[in-house]
Amino acid sequence: MTGGFLSIGECMVEMAPLPGAGDYRMGYAGDTLNTAWYLRRLLPQGLAVSYFTAVGTDAVSDRMVAFLGQAGIETGHVQRRTDRTVGLYLIQLTEGERSFSYWRGQSAARTLAADAAVLDLALAGMATAYFSGITLAILPKPDRARLLDRLAAFRSQGGRVVFDPNLRPRLWDDTATMTQAVMQAAAVSDTVLPSHEDEAAWFGDTDPAATAARYAQAGASEVIVKNGAGTMLALCDGARTEVQPVQVAQVIDTTAAGDSFNAGYLAARQNGAGVADAMAFAAKLAAQVIQTRGALMTPTATLPQ
Ligand code: ADP
User: Would the CB of 257 count as within 6 Å of ligand 1?
Assistant: First the structure.
């Protein structure tokens, strides 16, 4: 094992409106990519951060892979599909409110877990595998099972599995399928990083402690419950830790709050920080991200030890 991180999921083309008539800026985004981006910026260069996905063979796919490479993210395990291309979403601004339109139903990333041997090869050199509820949501049912099966095998060989439930009911056929798949994912994970507000909505958790207890019960030894502007809660091997978020006077754009938090937490833990210090660092990073427009920025804070 080289100690690297493998982030598994979908990166999409993002078309964001520019001031003026009908102009858009092309960028790249996706929850697991956002976390990989921040991990890369926080971790020492000697630790690999690799992205596992599938893209097309067209020019836009080439540009996406080049973007990942320029960000320092390894792309050696990005699969190429001749019959598909990358997903895309467009942000629409109407009187200051953002709305999103997606073209991702047939994206190449939906085939990312089609081959168990390819998954095993990518996981083989890694210490940590990271994935989310969105990763699961985009996969056909047999591929979802295949991904969880290979992650379980990776874990049984000493790898660490980290999961953010990132509940997005609109990506699922129905909420029962979503909640069932998310709990199956938690059962193969060491660390779960849920956001309480989403969990309360779809699992009926009355407070962050209920969210933490449910994932601990599923088998996760480390559960960190994010909570917007509220108190965060960790449940690690039965020990409870509460941490306050950073007070933010003006939230500009909450995109990637949770994704950057996850990277901050994992990087700080990797650097030797305890649970409370790692959560405080993650909260500081997320606070910086939500005071900046867009998902991706260069963090200024240095990791705690
Ligand atoms: P997600 O973006 O996944 O829905 P949350 O909304 O729970 O996740 O936010 C993740 C983390 O970002 C929080 O735990 C907190 O540290 C930080 N955060 C989010 N919103 C705020 C806020 N309004 N003020 C301060 N910190 C925030």
Answer: yes
**Does the active-site annotation cover 253?**
no
In single-letter form, the type of residue at position 67 comes to: F
Query: How far is 296 from 28, CA to CA, in rounded Å?
Result: 9
Mutational pocket test of ligand 1: of 167, 195, 205, 279, the residue with most ligand atoms within 8 Å of the beta carbon: 195
Q: What is the pLDDT of residues 150-204, one digit of tens each?
A: 999 999 999 999 999 999 999 999 999 999 999 999 999 999 999 999 999 999 9
Give helix 116-124 / helix 141-156 axis angle, nearest 10°: 30
Of all protein residues, the one whose alpha carbon is nearest to atom 1 of ligand 1 is 258
In whole angstroms, what is the distance from residue 77 CA to residue 53 CA?
7
**241 burial via Cβ count (<10 Å: 0-12, 13-18, 19+):** middle
| Distance (Å, whole) CA 33 – CA 260 | 10
Q: Looking at residue 1, what is its pLDDT?
A: 40
For ligand 1, pick from 251, 279, 290 the residue to mutate: most ligand atoms within 8 Å of CB: 290
pLDDT in tens, 2-49: 579 999 999 999 999 888 778 999 999 999 999 999 999 999 999 999
For the CA of 232, the nearest atom of ligand 1 = 14
**E-assigned strand segments in 187-291:** 191-192, 222-225, 232-236, 239-243
Cα 94 to Cα 63, 88, 103, 120, 135: the distances in Å are 29, 20, 20, 45, 29
Residue 287 beta carbon below 6 angstroms from any ligand 1 atom: yes
Structure tokens at 155: 């874990």
